[in-house]
């Protein structure tokens, strides 16, 4: 995803192996500038051609899918493909909670000849939408139609899932009839908490409770200049640059894999501001780029898309890091790029230590000098989210293998060659008038030679690709995962885009961070997740994978190799079980998961995160069966383990408590549900702020529980 597709990596790797050893050695030691220069001849026409023709396996196929996807409008009306496109989009819209628009898409799917055998699927979706909108009578009518339809199609393998779903919806319907939704306005009341925010004088977007420090060991880092309380906002930054990751298609309803492979992030979010798309404005040139508004489309075109538009397939092939690198350079503008690249040449030639180079003030930074002289700060000692700051992020050149650098170099050179061949050089160099460029330069023919300006661009891009290895920040959104049975919402942060946040990058990494980051569009907010006493460093975990660090730490068995092998086996078994869940074989899944648990008990400690994960999966299966007590029992075990690893106020614990609240809510365990909601609320509002969707959901559950009629309360 981040790096070029396997096919392109394979090609460059073979090319690398075939090079003269002496040349390889020279390249390994080359500066970024020399790297770009000496690779002049390498992307031989044929390689580039293959790449551009899109005949390699990995991404061009994906690219083709992505390109065809915007789909709905391009397919012949009345064809099943169109109807399936609409149906797919409706699934995504339901997941995102856009019920009205979802109903519109379902109606469109029906009118375009949606395949009859798949009809129950969208009828279920329709009923769920209607339920969510509180249109109970309509929902009931649909459920009746459905029941008779499902009764007729016994042969279908997925009918079990649908029956289950149907019965769940009926239960929900009954609940709703007894307990009408609280009025929407009631939400307003909970948003009262205002936050204390005072911006730092020296670091744009940072709180005044932080200060910027520098030492040899930790590089630049942020320290609490006064005591910080949990939940306090520490940093608010707009991404300098971000590129939407097309991502995988969303995991949607069980048993629909064959049809619902459609919607990806690229269809659901604005390619500029990352807002959710309801009605999109597609780019006229490539239907791939989509925007929330004409305004976003125009600004994106002006700033970068006029250059990127025709490069679409190449950029998808080369991966999102290359794409971010190109967009960074386009946003910065050629003048600034060329100034900083030039400055990096005139400084010392020490490539290993880019932080030491190109300082605005010549003296080395020391503690007494404040922020003046810290790399990336401007001449007033102010650190801002600027291209200059971004340019000075560490690229850890020495940590990348020579072959990896070779791959990156070929990739950025390939982009620059394509820019030159497509006559886009003027656009890259921000030269509005074409006449300036039409004649004088010698490079107008598509020779092997890049113009000096494009070499500068390539060098900057190479730097950015290498910087991304350790400075890329994922912009995530909460998306629902797993079979969408609706009873328990399993939300997890999913990567939406890859971005540079020059200020956020000042935070050093820790696997036990004292902050947590959330996103709104392309803006990041970092909040303290624990009390941070004055003088302590503020740390941040870049990884999204909750297993990133603690895997080996708590395993009981000896050899690490053996362990990782068994862990992999176990994870595969679990995955197999979960795949079965998608086709509705819950009983079998439970058996398999219990067996996994037993096996795992032989080599993992009871506190291992994976043990917790299995409990979580078991809870999920029981929830799909409507066995709420069982589900709650397993979730509680999972919570214990998660708490142990991530801490009782961590975001991970918050998510687990959120699930438990839903399970207890569904099982009418009123008093326990209320106390769980309260705990989840306390934790999640620290991480996501009091206005987040999750807090509102919790509030609604609470309101609903408090209005339950007495006869139900007595049952608990
Ligand atoms: Zn937008
Ligand atoms: Zn376009
Ligand atoms: Zn970590």
From TrEMBL:
One of its GO terms (cellular component) is nucleus. It is found in: Cytoplasm; Nucleus. Its main location: cytoplasm. It comes from the Eukaryota. GO terms for molecular function: histone deacetylase binding; methyltransferase activity; zinc ion binding. Keywords: Cytoplasm, Metal-binding, Methyltransferase, Nucleus, S-adenosyl-L-methionine, Transferase, Zinc, Zinc-finger. Gene3D superfamilies: 6.10.140.2220, Tetratricopeptide repeat domain (1.25.40.10). It catalyses: L-lysyl-[protein] + S-adenosyl-L-methionine = N(6)-methyl-L-lysyl-[protein] + S-adenosyl-L-homocysteine + H(+). One of its GO terms (biological process) is heart development. Protein-lysine N-methyltransferase. Monomethylates PRMT5, modulating its transcriptional activity. May also act as a histone methyltransferase. Plays a critical role in cardiac development. Acts as a key epigenetic regulator of gene expression during cardiac development via its dual activities as a methyltransferase and negative regulator of HDAC1. PANTHER family: SET AND MYND DOMAIN-CONTAINING PROTEIN 4. This is Protein-lysine N-methyltransferase SMYD4. It comes from Corvus moneduloides (New Caledonian crow).
